[in-house]
Amino acid sequence: MPTHVTPAEAAQRQLDAYNARDIDAFLAAYAEDCVVRAHPSGAVMFDGAEAMRARYGALFDSHPDLHARLLSRVEHEVFAIDHEHVEGMRAGEVVYAVAMYEVREGLIRNVWFLRDEASV
């Protein structure tokens, strides 16, 4: 992947693939050794692209109505911070997600999901 990809472009690429439920395109936005953590606890949710493939592949397969709508995005230096409205993950529920993506050399290297400490 070209290194001139901005954090916003990388975040959008993975969001588009998420909405298409295309696991290969989704993971193409991430580095092989990416780490996904809960914030502020720092608890590791996924360590590496293969762990993400297992979790998100199953999610995409089992949730045909899954869709995330971007509410806002902030880009600062190597970071993109997204606030999303997610439907189809839990029956009849809307989930609001906030994710911070660190992008280096055109790939998402680290992700932090803002989580209530009680939900981690």
Which features characterize this protein?
single chain; 120 residues; Nuclear Transport Factor 2, Chain: A; 6 strands; globular
Write the layout of secondary structure elements.
Blueprint: H1 7-20, H2 23-28, E1 30-39, E2 44-47, H3 49-62, E3 67-76, E4 79-90, E5 93-104, E6 107-114
Parallel strand pairs: 1-6
Antiparallel strand pairs: 1-2, 3-4, 4-5, 5-6
What does this molecule look like?
It is a single chain. The chain is α+β, with helices and mostly antiparallel strands and 120 residues long. The chain has a single domain (7-119), classed as Nuclear Transport Factor 2, Chain: A (Roll). It is built from three helices and six strands. It starts with 6 loop residues before the first helix and ends in a 6-residue tail after the last strand.
